[in-house]
Amino acid sequence: MPADRQSSPSRSLFGSTVAVAIVVVVAVVPTGCAGPAIRSQSPELEALSQLEADTKLVGDYTAPWGLNAKRIERAALVTGLADTGSDPPPGPQRQTLLADMQSRGVIEPNSLLASQSTSLTWIHGYLPPGVRKGDRFDVFVEVPPDNDTSSLAGGWLMETRLTEMAVIGNTIRDGHELGVAEGPLLVDPVSGGTLDSKSKIRARVPGGGVALTDRDLGLVLAAEHRSFAMSKRLGDWINRRFHAVIKGVKRGVANPQTDRYIELEVPPTYRHNLARYIRVVQSIAVIEPSGGRHARMQLLARQLEDPVTAPIAALRLEAIGKEAIPTLRTALDSKDAEIRFAAAEALAYLGESVAASHLAEAANNLRSARPVALAALSVLDDANGVDSLQSLLSSRSAETRYGAFRALWRMDPELPLVRGDQLGDACSIHVLDVDGPPLVHVTRSHRPEIVFFGTDHDVADGLRAEAGGSIVVVVEGDVATVSRFMPGQSDQQAEVPATAERIVRSIIELGGTYPDAVQFLQQASAARGLTSRLAFDALPDELDGRPSIHQEASTRSRDIPDDADPPAADVDRGADDPE
């Protein structure tokens, strides 16, 4: 690239060379692939390769901002322990908790802390990229190492406000309140049905946190390209490709804020796959030499024929938009499974439901592609998408089955097959009338939820299991007796059919919590009293749309770190300047 194009961003954004335009004329019938896929040195292919090199993408000028999860934390009080708590030692954590309790009007907070039914804990959660106010997140709870609490089982996390923490000098300072957390503690079971000493003092509250803020997503301009004009021009190019309905008005997704920062709205299609959205945005071309679009499409079509270059080619075709659909559809006929998947994923985000069966095939047969295949299927909310996901519910793979359920539920929680029942505030329960080996799936993240794949989940005669500290389940023949014993209260008892679903419902109806129901299922499985397979968190890597959230957003992305807040135009950040 000539030196004058490097020194002038505005010219580099719109300039082109006559030589490239001439090259395009002869580059009519390429016979290979650009980059690593090109194996011939024909002049035509060399010309196409040069054309691609001269094409400039949004990622050549920017880097993503806001893709890192933000940790928020706080000292918190857990109550309801069965004499397994402790009086915390003096220290900053105790002082923080005491201050919080006093601000809430708690009488004699030191006496409450001294009770064996309470424990000081340290909790934390992560606000994911693109989180919106009111969204839920998981909360992780642990007892500090210098406390004598022996178990958190049966505990309840009192409402706690979470903030970002920073060490300034030798002092821990907290920032704005960004989340609030509360709920019953789920102490992680292990495969043998027992708990080691460390597991007993660690727990989580699935979906127990609520975000109190929005987190923005955006792009940061590289230092050599920063100007208000450049920021606006890049925003204009992005808005030619992407629109979203914002506050009832359809407009472009890019909102240039300063000379160095462009805020991005997220279209609904990409709501659960922010990493792909950023990669597509950064693959938008801002310079295509005169007459080069047709020739570039030919080059990308050739690259799509090689599994080495197909993923990037499909991404760049997706960035072009509807014009690229015929090229991507042609690749669905490839004999190579990875090529078919790359094309199908791009087509799904372009709204082409013809991709559904190919994505289902990838979810079944390409384990590495399973998370993103299921995420792409979840945006195809038509008959093809629904049918393809339903076909996966009978798979032998727990990952595939639960991933398909999660994708269907995300698509539409009211779909009859996946709707299920909400058992008060405890959890949701879903019974899916599908084929395949019987499976009971329990989540320890996202939200409290139990999914039964199949309708027959018998519990064996002779089983005796606990569900928390006050509920006991005894199975005799085909009848289960669920009993609750509470000091100072009348005993409660219910007889139900000896199936896992009916027992779980009874546990909740008698006042049990989600952790109580999970404990029963774990004990029943460990004692070989549950005829179905029990699986926990059988998600393929991460189906929350972020399987690649920490990977480079584009192969041509600038290397700029993701700091806590968007960079302001009028602040000298010094050593923290994202360059």
The neighbouring-strand order within the major sheet is 3-4-5-9-7-6
Mean pLDDT: 84
Helix content: 25-40%
Would you tell me the structural class of the helices and strands? Answer: alpha+beta
The unreliable regions are: 1-40, 190-194, 543-564, 569-579
Into which percentage range does the β-strand content fall?
15-25%
Rg for CA atoms: 28 Å
| Beta-strand segment tally | 24
Total of helices: 18
Shape: flat
Largest sheet: 6 strands, antiparallel, barrel
How far apart the termini lie comes to 22 Å
Task: Report on the architecture of this protein.
31% of the residues lie in helices and 24% in strands. The chain has 579 residues and is of the alpha+beta class. Among the domains are: 1-55, no CATH class; 70-211, no CATH class; 421-536, no CATH class. A 6-stranded antiparallel beta barrel has the order 3-4-5-9-7-6. It has a 5-stranded mixed sheet with strand order 16-17-19-18-24, sandwiched between helices. It has a 4-stranded antiparallel sheet with strand order 2-10-14-13, with helices on one face. Helix 12 runs parallel beside helix 14 (370-377).
